[in-house]
Amino acid sequence: MSGTTSTTARVDIASIVRASRNASRKLALLSGETRKAALLAMADSLEANSARILAANAQDCAAEKLVAAGKMTQALFARLRIKPNGIAEMAMRVREVANLRDPLGKVLAATELDDGLILRKESCPLGVIAVVFEARPDVVPQLTSLALKSGNALLLKGGAEAAASNECIVALCKESLRQFPEVPQDSIHLLQSRADVMELLQLEGEVDLLIPRGSKEFVAYIEQNSRIPVLGHGEGICHVFIDRAADIDKALSVTIDSKVQYPAACNSVETLLIHKDIAPAFLPQIVAALQAANVEVRACPRAMSLLPQQKLVAATEQDWSTEYSDLILSVKIVDSLDEALEHIHQYGSKHTESIVTEDQSAADRFLREVDAAGVFHNASTRFADGYRYGLGAEVGISNGKLHARGPMGIEGLTTYKYKLHGNGHTVAEYAAGTRHFKHKPL
Amino acid sequence: MSGTTSTTARVDIASIVRASRNASRKLALLSGETRKAALLAMADSLEANSARILAANAQDCAAEKLVAAGKMTQALFARLRIKPNGIAEMAMRVREVANLRDPLGKVLAATELDDGLILRKESCPLGVIAVVFEARPDVVPQLTSLALKSGNALLLKGGAEAAASNECIVALCKESLRQFPEVPQDSIHLLQSRADVMELLQLEGEVDLLIPRGSKEFVAYIEQNSRIPVLGHGEGICHVFIDRAADIDKALSVTIDSKVQYPAACNSVETLLIHKDIAPAFLPQIVAALQAANVEVRACPRAMSLLPQQKLVAATEQDWSTEYSDLILSVKIVDSLDEALEHIHQYGSKHTESIVTEDQSAADRFLREVDAAGVFHNASTRFADGYRYGLGAEVGISNGKLHARGPMGIEGLTTYKYKLHGNGHTVAEYAAGTRHFKHKPL
To answer: How confident is residue A71, by pLDDT bands cut at 50, 70 and 90?
Structure first.
């Protein structure tokens, strides 16, 4: 499945990474205008060459026979196939990223330390980013645009199933960059095999950030086998809490959307918590709606006793800490907002948590006290996404608290440096107490 | 050396960390006023109880006999002893942190995603921070104040030599917090032994950030033996580049200060790069000044040939990648700014790099192109420090590019959460294209 390049000689990953590193130094010096123009050209090129992309994708999709043979799931196939409007959408997304405000060279803080001694904290690119992802070829232009917009060199490794599509899209992106001689061709590299990735994992100091997108096990494997900093898609055990002061209609639609709209996503809900005071009115309606949407409900004893006529599956302790990624929802009745907060503290994965209520003070408490990347009021957990947040797109969703939290766009691909301008200033005088800092914010 | 507690029963680290975690949830809800008032009370308490602190410190310093016996170096002893004005300075530093702007609840970005759907990115504490540090007891009030100001619970482990001083200071801090019943006593814990730290390293998910302050080997050990996120003091191979357009007086004072003011610090200079055009005028003067300050000069062949009458030590390849942390400086003559940039790219540790020049465009290039946490123009590398930067103090200096770079103050101890306020909004309509995002920055 590694396509046209499987016959070429084994590539030397260390030299590819070195080329990326050199490219990153040039990328960091490009003007915002150049980076934007290059991205707009890239978008045009994708549209102008849609026949090439679709032909490559058809090659990957010829593996449809494999589906019949049971070697590829229908779900995987759906992610692999580029839909008729898919290329226009890819191009649109690239243009959206192109048009975002330049994330580089922003003065994040400025302080006059003393007369003539000015400190500025300024945003700059991370350097070299590596992303390992699965089937979807539309991820390629997204990642490419986010990396280039933020002045970073990019190493990509996609799923073997999408090899032809990914190679075609990367080739088109690189071709479109030829119009801009100051943009290095080595800004983007597509790695070919799992062995390449394994080699890459050892190149700490050469790669600044590694983003594995895939199963929890895959992310954990990468974290354990590399000393390169990793920002990983973590698991999503998200909750919706229906407070006693919830509006029932909002509670129904937020719950259904959070579960049904795309149950495989990490931001879909796994456990519904219901305040005991609203459960008698809400539970029958939501269970009916969930069942109508083919959702299996796993209920706590109190919920089961409220609906004795229903044959609900009994939830076990295991259910509260399970990410179903499927049309299954566990339901628990709680006595209070406090009990909901405790349950989320104990079982939540700090991804996205939502409260449905018309009581502003309950909402305020929930949003303040829940420790998660996203804390929502009267909104579906499915909004936790870089595109929906207005970040243009996302390189991934971080479950960690350091550097980037939640959906991670171009800002997550930047760091900063402190620029200090002096006039021959030395520390000795301040240490001796003959000069004193002003520390005046500018 | 573990002082008064060495006789007490072995503590259960997991339950201490659990108590810290619970404390962190309460700390996150405190108002900025309460956190500030608690810190001011802490500063007062340190001053009011200086006799107690000095007595405890005298106990540690009784180990002076150990110095005589060669078991403690004079340098370590100097770091251990609290000087007469030391307590007033500790208190002053705590007050400075108390008076910093509140780092919590800051709205870092706000976007109207659509009518009635408002997203805010708001700063919040990390949670539980653990810091493992060496001798200096004045680090305790610094770390305590930074953690409390940023709403984080703190686990501390200091050097065994300073056990009595550290215990006394932590006890006083906790006593002063008793005036504020809403501030949990478990906000601060002092761990007793290396075994406690080893146990702590396994508690991933319970501790949000681990900051080891010590030798490069110690930091690497911690990184390799814990899955808790680590921000470590890295090594500092810092350069000063004397450009051809340098002012000789500034070049002399910046170089001497960068090397001599405190050579053991990670931000002191290790290699001096000199442009060939200014070397004939500058080299004899700087070598004389360095030698007058007892600095050993290790010179490249060109520098040696410029000063044949001097008996300079010849630098080896090894010297360019050595952090001396001592009164030793390697010197290299380069042909151009480009060669200086390449040398720094190859050997620098991305800590702090300084250029001395009157040529603004050379300075601009250096500050833009050098990839380091601190890039300085006409200023000593020794300015790279949280206090000098106006951050109040520092929990450490990060050599990494993620999360916090360079001196790390209260901002580095915060993360953010996305708060989304809706009115029953669901994703399905946007996915179907019946509603469209506005993404209007607020």
So the answer is: low
Tell me: do A178 and A68 sit in the same domain. yes
Query: Quick one: B186 and B299 in the same domain?
Result: no
User: Tell me: the pLDDT tens digits for A91-132?
Assistant: 999 999 999 999 999 999 999 999 999 999 999 999 999 999
- Say if strands A128-132 and A209-212 run parallel, antiparallel, or are unpaired: parallel
CA distance A289 to chain B (A): 15
**CATH number assigned to the domain comprising residue A322:** 3.40.309.10
In a domain, A188, yes or no: yes
| pLDDT given at position B45 | 97
In angstroms, rounded to a whole number, what is the distance separating the alpha carbons of residues A191 and B132?
40
- Burial per residue of B207-222, b for 16 or more beta-carbon CB atoms within 10 angstroms, e otherwise: bbbbbbbeebeebeeb
> In Å, how far is A29's CA from the nearest CA of chain B?
7
Predicted confidence band of residue A5 (pLDDT cuts 50, 70, 90): very low
Sequential DSSP letters for A165-212: HHHHHHHHHHHHHTT-TTS-GGGEEE---HHHHHHHTT-BTTBSEEEE
Q: What is the mean pLDDT of chain A?
A: 92
- Domain holding B128, by residue range, is 3-232+408-416
Using the structure block, give the residue that is written with the tokens 């770079």.
B405
- B184 and B277 co-located in one domain: no
3 state DSSP class of B359: coil
Structure tokens at A386: 């870089």
Distances (CA, A) of B92 to A21, A114, A373, B43, B87: 45, 19, 36, 7, 8
In angstroms, the CA A412 to CA A398 distance is 10
How far are the Cα atoms of A3, A178, A238, A323, A408 from residue A266, in angstroms, in the given order?
A: 31, 38, 8, 8, 14
With a cut of 70, which residues of chain B have pLDDT below it? 1-10, 63-75, 135, 234
Asked if B400's CB is within 8 angstroms of A402's CB, the reply is: no
Facing A431 at nearest CB: one of B261, B375, B437: B261
| Same domain? A202 vs A319 | no
Does position A64 have pLDDT exceeding 90, yes or no? Answer: no
On the 0-12 / 13-18 / 19+ scale of CB atoms within 10 A, A418 is buried
A65 with A145, same domain: the answer is yes
Residue A141 makes CB contacts below 8 A (sequence gap 6+) with A42, A43, A46, A90, A91, A93, A94, A169, A173
Does residue A29 carry a pLDDT above 90? yes
For residue A67, what pLDDT is reported?
Answer: 63
Q: State the ipTM, two decimals.
A: 0.90
Residue type, A224: Q
Cα(A52)–Cα(A318) distance, integer angstroms? 48
pLDDT of A159 reads: 87
**Percent of chain A having pLDDT more than 90?**
77
Residue A305 near residue A336, CB atoms below 8 Å: no
In a domain, B440, yes or no: no
Q: Are residues A216 and A361 both part of a single domain?
A: no
User: Could you identify the residue written with the tokens 């299996």?
Assistant: A296
- Beta-carbon separation of A261 and B428 below 8 A: yes
Q: How far apart are CA A8 and CA A15, in angstroms?
A: 16
Of the candidates B379, B269, B404, B242, the residue with the CA atom closest to the CA atom of residue B323: B269
Where does B209-327 show beta strands of DSSP type E?
209-212, 238-242, 269-275, 296-299, 313-314
Q: Minimal Cα distance from A421: which residue of B? A: B377
If asked whether residues B285 and B226 sit together in one domain, one would say no
Q: How much is the pLDDT for A69?
A: 61
Domain with A55 in it: what CATH number?
A: 3.40.605.10
**Chain B partners within 8 Å of A421 (Cβ):** 363, 376-379
- DSSP track, B195-237: HHHHHHTT-BTTBSEEEE-S-HHHHHHHHHT--S-B--B----
Number of separate domains in chain A = 2
Return the SS3 of B323.
Answer: coil
DSSP state of B318: G
